[in-house]
Structures are given as structure tokens and as C-alpha cells.
Specification:
With about 270 residues, this protein is an alpha/beta fold. The protein has one domain: Purple Acid Phosphatase, chain A, domain 2, CATH 3.60.21.10. It is built from six helices and 15 strands. The strands form four sheets. Strands 4-5-7-9-11-10 form a six-stranded mixed beta sheet. Strand 1, helix 1 and strand 2 form a beta-alpha-beta unit. The radius of gyration is 19 Å and the shape is globular.
């Protein structure tokens, strides 16, 4: 099974730029074209939150038009820039969200790898939260299939990064989350967004990855007093390959780069 992951697409209505300078729509079009040309094609696309910038229905409508060239199924989760009902309506055809309440879901039995989507959204706030109700749902859902290999999706990462302004918008409840996942070795990987960078760590003994944005990246500045800032580093997305009981993840840089060039001559001799 091959899974693509986009994150933090931050689509605005046509003609508007994020932060007055980032053309998120054109940049998403480049990622969509890159993914659409890939062989083999992924079986599934995940989008780990902040799909749009202001949570407006018109933004979601525009987002769906930008994603239209992709023929694969999609699973999405809400980020702090999203609005639950507008997101639910925009992706109603994907049949993954409950009709009301938290936007959790469980795909058990649909694919070889079980995918659990976890809602960390706090309306009108940048931070995320896993309250007692959300944590209870996660614990019960994991316990229902303790041997099935599982992928957990959430927008806000359950760890501190050292990037001060992003940690200030971090996840409440991450300690309790770590204790829950510690008891579930079927979790192969926890995938997050929010940080606009590829960052890797472990939480509760389980691996965690954050995905780069298809647009702007959060500036890597580990000074405690570092300002909130982004950089126009290369946009990207991720590919996750589930094969032979192992999940392997790749970061894909989107853009025009020289190559590929052969390592060897036709005779098999290494080119020096």
C-alpha cells in the first residue's frame, strides 16, 4: 500500500495570498501535478490539517477544484485553520467523518493498514487539545483492534520541537496521549502537520513524523526568543509505503531540479 501525505495547504479564495505573499494555490497545483505524474500512483492521499486558511466554504470549494486531478481516495483531518462543519460538508463524499461532534474516524477493514483520524481542533485558537473525551475515544478505538497495524493522524504534533512560537501553539493533553499509545504496539506511525517541516521523534515509544507544507515552511530557529516566521524553502509532501509488514516514509521535494543522472555507464562501470 502506498500512501501520499499533503499538509498545511492553507488555501484561500482565488486571488488572495497567504500572509500577503504566499501563493498557496499555485504551489498546491505544483504538488498535485507532481503526485499525479508519479508511478506507481498512491492508493490514498492523506491531508493532515490546515487545508484552508480561514475555514470558509468558498476556500474548501476552491481546494476541492485544485485537488480534482487526483483520482485516489482522500482522508483529511482538521487543523487549527479549519472549521469543522465547512470541512465536513466539503469532504462529505469521502464518508470518513461522523455527522456531528469531533471529527474522529477509524478505517478498520478498509485498507491493509488501519488509519485512525484524531481531531485536535480548538475552534478559533491556534493550539490543539486532546480532552478526556477525545482521549477516551482513542483508547477505546485502539483497544478494539489491538493486533491490526495502525496509522494515527493528527494535526497538532504531540511533542515540543524547540521552535518557540510553534510550541506555544502546541497540544494540550500530549502526556496522556503518550501513555495511551505506549500501550499499543500495533501503532506503526503517528503522522502530523502544523509544523510546516519534516521533524522526527518518538512519543510513548511510537515513531512520530511531521510533514512539510506544500507551500511555505516554518523557519528553523531554535533560539528561545526567536520570532514567528516562515521561509520559502522547497515545498514538499511525503510518501509512506506499507509493504511486508514495514512502513517506510519518504520526503518528496516539489520543484524542478537537475537530474536524474546515472551512477554507472551502460557497461556497468561507475562514472568517475
Amino acid at each position: 500500500m502506498l500512501i501520499a501525505q499533503f499538509s498545511d495547504t492553507h488555501i484561500k479564495i482565488p486571488g488572495k495570498l497567504a500572509y500577503g505573499r504566499v501563493d498557496t494555490a499555485t504551489m498546491l497545483q505544483a504538488s498535485v501535478a507532481h503526485l499525479a505524474a508519479m508511478q506507481p500512483q498512491p492508493d490514498l492521499l492523506l491531508i493532515t490539517g490546515d487545508l484552508v486558511d480561514l475555514g470558509r466554504p468558498a476556500e474548501y470549494q476552491y481546494l476541492r477544484s485544485l485537488l480534482a486531478p487526483l483520482q485516489m481516495p482522500m482522508l483529511v483531518i482538521a487543523g487549527n485553520h479549519d472549521e469543522r462543519q465547512a470541512l465536513r460538508e466539503a469532504f462529505a463524499d469521502q464518508a470518513c467523518f461522523p455527522a456531528s461532534g469531533f471529527m474522529h474516524y477509524d478505517t478498520a477493514g478498509r485498507w491493509p493498514l488501519r488509519i485512525i483520524g484524531l481531531d485536535t481542533l480548538v475552534p478559533l485558537e491556534g493550539r490543539g487539545e486532546l480532552c478526556a473525551d477525545r482521549l477516551d475515544w482513542l483508547a477505546q478505538t485502539l483497544a478494539a483492534a489491538p493486533t491490526q497495524p495502525t496509522l494515527v493522524l493528527m494535526h497538532h504534533p504531540p511533542f515540543l520541537t524547540g521552535i518557540a512560537h510553534m510550541d506555544a501553539l502546541g497540544l494540550t493533553g500530549r502526556e496522556a496521549f503518550a501513555e495511551i499509545v505506549r500501550g499499543h504496539p500495533q501503532i506503526q506511525l503517528i503522522l502530523c502537520g502544523h509544523l510546516h517541516r519534516n521533524i522526527q521523534t518518538t512519543v510513548g515509544g511510537r515513531p512520530v513524523l511531521t510533514c512539510p507544507s506544500t507551500a511555505h515552511q516554518v523557519a528553523l530557529d531554535l533560539r528561545p526568543e526567536a520570532p514567528s516566521a516562515f521561509r520559502m524553502e522547497p515545498p514538499g509532501y511525503m510518501l509512506h509505503r506499507w509493504h511486508g509488514g514495514q512502513l517506510v516514509s519518504h520526503v518528496v521535494a516539489v520543484g524542478e531540479y537537475a537530474g536524474p543522472y546515472p551512477f554507472f555507464e551502460p557497461s556497468g562501470k561507475l562514472i568517475d
